[in-house]
Specification:
The chain is mainly β and 110 residues long. The protein has one helix and seven strands, in the order βββββαββ. Strands 1, 2, 3, 4, 5, 6 and 7 form a seven-stranded mixed beta sheet that branches.
Length: 110
């Protein structure tokens, strides 16, 4: 990713609510990527990508996991500037195995 965090911005979500799996329809919800996003310190002191998205009339912040980022890179390229304006489908997905088994995450479909 070719973006850097700008500390002058309003924190990781820029004042937007973070989208949650419960905000999405089971069959998927269309979302539009509004800007190239930004990186900020996240869990385990790793830089996490946050993207502003629009679902219907509501704007959200979305922090895609590694799998979702891989899907976006494969579809749109490794520069998040190229993702701006793209429409994706977000779906809630229950994690089946591992340490997060039973929790729900957000899966991206392009």
């Amino acid at each position: 990713m070719k973006i850097e965090f700008n500390p002058a911005e309003l924190g990781p979500s820029q004042g937007r609510a973070y989208i949650k799996p419960a905000d999405l329809a089971a069959k998927g919800t269309k979302a539009k990527i509004l800007s190239e996003g930004w990186r900020a310190d996240g869990t385990f002191k790793k830089q996490q990508l946050t993207l502003p998205i629009k679902v219907g009339d509501q704007e959200y912040a979305w922090t895609p996991n590694v799998v979702a980022q891989s899907v976006l890179v494969e579809e749109f390229g490794d520069d998040t500037k190229d993702w701006v304006g793209e429409t994706i489908t977000l779906k809630p997905r229950k994690i089946e195995r591992g340490q997060y088994a039973g929790k729900t995450t957000i899966e991206v479909v392009v």
